[in-house]
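[agent] plan:
  1. take the single chain provided in the ticket
  2. run structure prediction with default settings
  3. attach structure tokens to the ticket
  4. add a short note for the reviewer (M.T.)
[agent] executing step 1
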Amino acid sequence: MSEKAMNRRNFLKRTGQAVMTLPVFFGTGGCQDSPGKSDKQTVRFGLCADVHKGVIHDAELRMQTFVDRMNAEQVDFVMQLGDFCSPYFDNKPETASETAKFLAIWNSFSGPKYHVCGNHDIDDEFTWEQTMAFWGQEKQYYSFDRGGYHFIVLDGNEKSENPAPGYPRYIGSAQAKWLQDDLAATRLHTFVSSHQSLENAEGVENREQIRAILERSNQRSDSAKVVACFSGHHHIDYHIVINGINYIQINSMSYQWLGGDYIHARFSPEVEAKNPWVRYTAPYKDPLYAIVTLERQGVMKIEGVKSEYIPPTPRELGKPEEPEGNKGSAVISDRLLKFKV
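[agent] step 2 finished; step 3 output follows
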């Protein structure tokens, strides 16, 4: 989530599970498919971001909607792009059972499930070791192959020597070296995911360095190896191309953060009392998510969900409109993008 919109750790007081573990491949390239166009398949996967269990009051319903759709569509895998959930919230151990129920819904997807680490996933003073154990995930950054494509998951939550204000948002030297080696070890078209974006000024601090690694990899390849980078964090709907690489921000499943200047109680007193941070948000009526389809002919289709705000809207509350069209709206846009095969 954007530091400009909020720094919840300063603004706020802190801002069962049966886990199905998947065969995730770590290290330099993981377990690779054979390269070449003839080996590529049609691959479909579901993406969601910034659910924020512990802030949004109906996180379970939103996650159930997503999982039901992904199971019905029989996508090849699902991935959440961070700000998912910590083991419990608001420093209340009694909420652990609620969070376990939420995680169990995610784990009810019938295929592989992948996590990206978000800055709010260690809220309430949890460590990454605790959150990762709760999720059932081994590593914070890793890679895997599917259907003739390579997927890289980065951890943008490391600390720099002179950090910017707010949450840590950096990719350290060891991870950067791992990324470089991982790219060198695969000849497959590659798709990168991170929580904080690699193109936004409020994303990864050393984003230029990381983009340079991706771009050098493309320069050494017969066809553009790195096709796209997906991120969440900013709660916006956005796409830009930088030096031939697509950077796509997947909007929050749940809301736009408004902050203390635009507090509004939309729900019953019981809901508001149990979920005190929801009044700082502009919730979306329907959960937002996307289905991404990769086709062997060099086509990437993004099918998004369009919704609307539960009133009043941010504009009705007097919040200035975001620039660049609908990027601050309750939507994930459909997109049709091509890449060289």
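[agent] step 4 note for reviewer: The helical segments are 8-11, 59-73, 96-107, 128-135, 173-184, 207-219, 269-274.
[agent] ticket updated
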